[in-house]
Write a structure and sequence with these properties.
Length: 311
């Protein structure tokens, strides 16, 4: 399969993978992006649209975003979350539904595809995942079942693509096909960038949580955290990535700085190690966390400071 169009145009846009639990979405994202940056959030319900990874190509850029899991709503919160999913789906260019080849199409898949019909304009792609686990006969049957599900729900699949993320089979082809479905446009993120501000905001939040642990009464709202830089350390072997995170912890007064830093820096070390654990759990990547404590006088009352601190 050649590159999209092959006419020198550059395409860019957003796609998201959906599918029932265990369908292979994260593994496929990692295989496409080539580095393990996928968020395996331990707090999925608090995560809004998050960039999971960016596929950089000479002829295009594909930004993979994550949506909260779609559930059959049992509660109002569930309904709100599903609204959020629908609004994300309507904002991306392509939604790719993953159907694991080692399992038959079931009610969970039908529910997702039915919901997907509510976003008419978004392009839909079907991905048959985990093809390495099945025989060619079973795969053929699976592909027919996916096509049939499309007909039954009045869903037009732009493509039906079998892949094996763990075997690396057809992963590049899927990237080509997805890129070809994106509109023409400039790169949305600088080359080499794998993450986005929403992720940094979550990281900042985790640091803030850790810093407030145990001193909430003393410093309730006087802490703000800003992630200055977050990037994968270059020159690391592919199977041993390390994410460098530099963050500033802002307090309002010199005296509060002492509370955060603690005796000979003991508290800051505790904060760092607690936050690092959380960030690693969320990103699935080992993290080097560098924390600096700074005084930003009366930041809560100063609009200029507030802007700088991301409020
Ligand atoms: N053999 C094989 N196993 C796969 C493949 N892709 C994913 N898996 C396995 O399937 C399981 C689920 O994969 P995930 O990528 O975590 O699935 P997910 O859809 O992100 O799961 P949730 O986060 O629960 O929604 C893991 O044990 C993967 O190793 C594949 O191409 N081949």
């Amino acid at each position: 399969m050649s590159a999209p169009d092959g006419d020198g145009s550059f395409r860019s846009g957003f796609a998201c993978f959906v599918g029932r639990p265990n369908a292979g979405k994260s593994t496929l994202t990692n295989a496409l992006v080539g580095t393990k940056v996928a968020i395996t959030s331990s707090r999925p319900q608090t995560t809004r649209t998050v960039v999971r990874g960016i596929v950089h190509r000479p002829d295009g850029q594909l930004v993979l975003v994550d949506t909260p899991g779609l559930h059959r709503p049992r509660t109002l919160l569930g309904e709100r979350l599903n609204d959020l999913v629908l609004s994300t789906w309507s904002e991306v260019d392509v939604v790719a539904v993953c159907f694991p080849a080692d399992e038959r199409i079931g009610p969970g898949d039908r529910f997702i595809v039915n919901e997907l019909t509510k976003v008419r304009r978004t392009i839909k792609v079907a991905v048959a995942t985990k093809t390495d686990l099945v025989t060619p006969e079973r795969l053929a049957e699976h592909l027919l079942a996916i096509a049939e599900l499309g007909r039954a729900t009045d869903t037009e699949w732009a493509e039906i693509v079998p892949v094996s993320a763990t075997g690396g089979e057809q992963v590049d082809l899927l990237a080509d096909l997805l890129l070809a479905l994106l509109p023409e446009g400039p790169a949305l993120y600088p080359d080499g960038e794998l993450t986005d501000t929403p992720e940094e905001a979550i990281v900042a939040d985790l640091v803030r949580e850790a810093a407030l642990e145990g001193v909430r009464d003393e410093l309730p709202h006087s802490i703000a955290v800003v992630v200055e830089e977050m990037r994968l350390r270059p020159d690391r072997p592919e199977d041993k990535p390390l994410l460098d995170v530099h963050a500033n912890v802002f307090v309002e007064r010199e005296s509060q700085k002492g509370i955060i830093i603690g005796h000979k820096g003991s508290r800051l070390r505790e904060i760092g190690s607690a936050a690092r654990g959380q960030i690693e759990a969320m990103l699935g990547t080992p993290v080097y966390l560098d924390l600096r404590v700074k005084v930003a006088k009366d930041w809560q009352r100063d609009p200029r400071q507030l802007r700088r601190l991301g409020f």
